[in-house]
Amino acid sequence: MKKIISIIFIGATLLSCSCTKEDNSISTKTENGVITEKPYIWWNKEEEHDHFIITNGFIYKNSFLAESHINSISYLSLQIGKNGNILWRWNDYFKSEDLSIRDYYFNNENFIFQQGPRSYCINLETGETKWKKQWKNSMQIKVSGIDNELIVLEYYSDNGNSYPSINILNVINGNIIERIIPKFENKVNINVLGELGDIHSVSPFKKHGKVYLLITYNEAISYSKSIPLISLYNYTDKTWVYEYKKITNLEKGGLGFVDIQNDRIYHDGASHVFCNDLWTGDSIWTQEFKGNFLFGSCTYDQGTLYCAAEGDGYYALDAETGAIKWKGERAPGTSSRMVVLNGVLYYINGGDGRLWALDAATGKTLWRLKSPDGYSFKREINVMQGDGERKGYVLTSTWHGACAYEAER
Amino acid sequence: MKTIKLKLIIVLIVSVFLTPESYTQERNVMWVHGLGGSNNSFLTNSVHHQSKYLMKSIRGVYDKGDDAKACSAKIKNQFESGFGNGSSQPTNICISHSFGGLVARTLEKGNADKGQTQNFGGQILVHSPQGGAQFAANYQNGFFDKKFAEVFNKITKPFKADIIDEVEMLIATPLLVIGGTSIDVLTFDDIANILAVFWGINNLEGTEASWLFKAYAENIDFNDKPKITDLVPDSDLMNELRDFDSPGQLITIYGAEERNIVHRLVSSLSVKPGSNTLDIVSDEKDIFSPFEGLFELNFNINRGLGIAADISGANFVRKLFTSHNTPFHERARLWREGKDYLNGGLETDWLILIGAVGYTVQKVSITQMTPECKNKLDGLEILLEDFHKNGEFKNRDDVQNAINNLIHNSGCYENGSTEIEIPYNKPNDGVVLTESQQAAGGILFENINCNHFEAVNTKVLSENFINIFQEGARGAGWYVTPLR
C-alpha cells in the first residue's frame, strides 16, 4: 500500500475561477501584421453565466436587436450601435426561447419574426407588440415579405391541401390574404416530416412595376433525400413565369442561402454553389467544394460571392463565372455567416472563436481578434456604416454580452 | 346488440384519440452518454430539446465493466422498450457523446450484421473518438501512469522539499501544511484518494470546486477496462467500425481547441452541471491562478528568508554543520519551477498523454567541419590535454597554433544538411484528437472552443443543435425538426 500525501491547501479559493476579466486598456496588438487585440468601443457585459446577448443581422436607424436579461427574465432589446445603450425592452412572448431570432422581415416600423407555431409583429419605434398569434401547426422559422405583405412558410400541408403552402399575410394585422402552392409532381414519397415536399424559401422582388416571387422548394424522394426545385411566380398577374425547374440532380436537398443579383439567382446547398438565370431558371454555373455551407453560407457583394465552406476554407468567387478569385487563410472550424463593410469581410471563425477580418479584394487576413472575455466570440456578427466619428461598426457578441469594434475601413 | 354498440363506440373513441395528426409526428431521440457517464449526462440537452422541438427523448444508459458491444445491446433494448413500434422509424435519431458514439455505431453495425431493421435513421456524434483515443493506448501500456506520476511529482516537488525541515517549512510557508511521505508511482486510485482527502478537508461539498472531483469520478473512470480496451486506436472494435459505413444519415460534431487545453479542461470539469443549459464558463486564463499564486507566494517567502539568512550568516552556519546548501534559495527555485510547470509544462505533458503532440521532420542546411580536419583537431586536443596532465609544456604553443589554424581554416568546413524534428500540436478537444472525432465522416460541425466535457451541457452544443434541427435557411435536411 503506497503512502499517500495528504495535501491541505488553506484557502478555499484554490480552484475557484474568476471569470470575464477584461482589459480594454491594451492598445492594438499585432502578430505578423495581423491585428489580434484591439480596444472595443463598448461591451454590454452581463455577469451571470446563464445570460447572454445575441446580436441579430438587423440594423434599424443605427440600432440593432439583441437579447438581454434582467433578473433572469429575457427581453428582446433595441440597442444603439454606437454605444450599446438600450432603447427599449420587450418580453411579450408566448415562449422565452422565441427570442432566438434567426430570421425576420421588417417594413416601416414593423418587425416580424416567427418561431414554431407563433408569429410576432413588434413596433420598432415603441418596442410594443403590434400583433402576435399562434397557429395550429409549427411554421418555418424563415420569413420574408414585400411592402405590407408578409410571407410565412408551412411545414405541414393544411386546409385539405396535399402540399405545404406559402401563406401571404397582412403585415398590419397578421391575417392570411392568400395561399400559394408551387407545382409538385410527387404523390408518393414523404420526407422526414411526413410531407410530400417542403418549401424552402420565397424571395420577393419587383421588376417593371410587377411583384415576383422566386420560390425554392424540395420534392421528397425519401425521408432523407429530395430534389431541389425553383419556380418563379408573377404575383401581380397571378401567373407562373416558369415552374418546377430542377436546380441540380443532386439528391441531398436542403438549400441554403438564396440571393438575387443582376437577374441571376445565387444559392448554396450540398457542398455546392449554384448560379441560375432568374428569368428562365436555367443553370449558368455550379462550383463544388469540399465543405458544407450550413453555418457560414455565402454573401454577395459587388460582383463577388464570399463563401465559407465548413472545414475547408473561405473563398471569393467571381459571381459572373463562378471562378475562384482567392482562398483565404485556412482556419479550422465552422464559421459564422460573413458580412462585408467597405471592402472588408468579417466573420467569427469556429476553430478559434476569434473575430476575423479579410481584405475582400485579396483575401489577406487583417484581423484575428481575441474576445475581450478571454473565451471566444459567438457566431453572431453584424456591421454598421460609420457616422463621422467612426469608420464603421463591427457588432458581435462574446459569451457575456454584445460588443462593438471600430471597423477596419 | 348492446355489446356490439359499445364495442363500436369504444373503437370510435380509441381511433379518434389514437389517430396521429400529421404535424404531431414526433421524432424519437436517444441520448447516449460517454465513458463513465450516467443518465445525468446529457440531462440538460435532452430535456431542453424535448421541450423545445417536436421530439421525444429517452436516455440510453449502460454500465461500467461492459464493452461497447454489451453496452449497445443494453441501449438497443432500452430504446425498443421505450418506443415500442416506433423504435425502428427512419426518423429516429441517436445522439451520443464520446464513447457513447462508439456504442451507438456498434448498435448500428450489429443491426446490419444481423439483417435487422435499423433503430435509427441517423446518428449525431458529439466529440466521439471514432478513430480511437491515444490516451487509452497510453493507459494500457503503462505510459499514462508513469506520466501522471511525473506530473504529480513535478507539481509537488517544492512541497516535498519543504518537508526536509518541518520547522523551517512552517516558518517559510505559512500557507501550507504537509504530512506524509513522498511517492514514486501513483495509480489512479491514489489520485482519487488524494482528491477525496482534498475534498473532505476543504469542505468543498456544495461548492463549485466539488464538481471537479465528481466529474473526475464520473468521467475519468480508468477502471472500466473493457471500454478502455475498445478505445485503443487499433482495437478490434475500432477496426470493425473503421470498415463499417453507417447506413443512415450521419452528423459529426467535433471540438478543436487550440490553446490552454489543460486549463480549459480543469475549468470545465469544475462547473456544476445545472438544470439549465450551461453558458460557456471555462476560463482558461485563471483556473490555475490561485494555485500559481500559492507557488509565487512561497517563492517570494523562501527567497526573502534566503536573503535574510545570507545577511545573518545562518546559511553559512547551516552549510558548515549540515552540508545542506542554502535551503531557502533552493526551495525558492523549486517553487518557481513549479509555477512555470503549471504555466506551460503541464500543458505539454497533457498533450503528450492524449497523443496530441506530433513532429514534422525538416531538413536544414548546416556548415560542418570536414571529417579529415575533425580527426586532426581531435588528435591535437588530446595532445594538448596530455601536456596539461603531465605538466610538460614543451611545444605547447605550436600545438595551440595548429589547433587555431585548423579552426580558422575555411577549407576545413563544408556545407551539409541534417534533419530536425519540429513539434506541433494536433487539434484536439482536450481529450480526443479532432481527426479521431471526424473519423466516421458525415456532415461536420464544430463546437466553437468547446472541450470534451463541456460538450454535453453547453450552449455551444445547443446552438449547433439549433442549426441542425431548424436552421431557417435549410429546408429538406433529414435533421429538420420543427419547434413546438
Could you describe the 3D structure shown?
The complex is a heterodimer of chains A (409) and B (484). Chain A is mostly beta strands and 409 residues long. Chain A is built from no helices and 35 strands. Chain A has strands spanning 6-9, 29-31, 34-37, 42-45, 59-60, 63-70, 73-80, 86-90, 105-107, 110-115, 118-123, 128-134, 139-146, 149-154, 166-170, 176-180, 197-207, 210-220, 226-234, 239-246, 255-261, 264-269, 272-277, 283-288, 297-301, 304-309, 313-318, 324-327, 339-341, 344-348, 355-359, 365-369, 377-385, 392-398, 401-406. Chain A is globular. Chain A starts with 5 loop residues before the first strand and ends with a strand. In chain B, strands 2-1-3-4-6-9 form a six-stranded parallel β-sheet, sandwiched between helices. Chain B has a two-stranded antiparallel sheet with strand order 7-8. The longest helix of chain B has 27 residues, at 327-353. In chain B, helix 6 packs antiparallel against helix 15 (327-353), helix 9 packs across helix 12 and helix 16 (371-390) packs antiparallel against helix 17. Chain B is elongated, with a radius of gyration of 32 Å. Classes of the chains: A mainly beta (409), B alpha/beta (484). At the A-B interface, strand 1, strand 13, strand 17, strand 18 and strand 21 of A face helix 6, strand 5, helix 8, helix 9 and helix 13 of B. Strand 1 of chain A pairs antiparallel with strand 5 (176-179) of chain B, so a sheet runs across the interface.
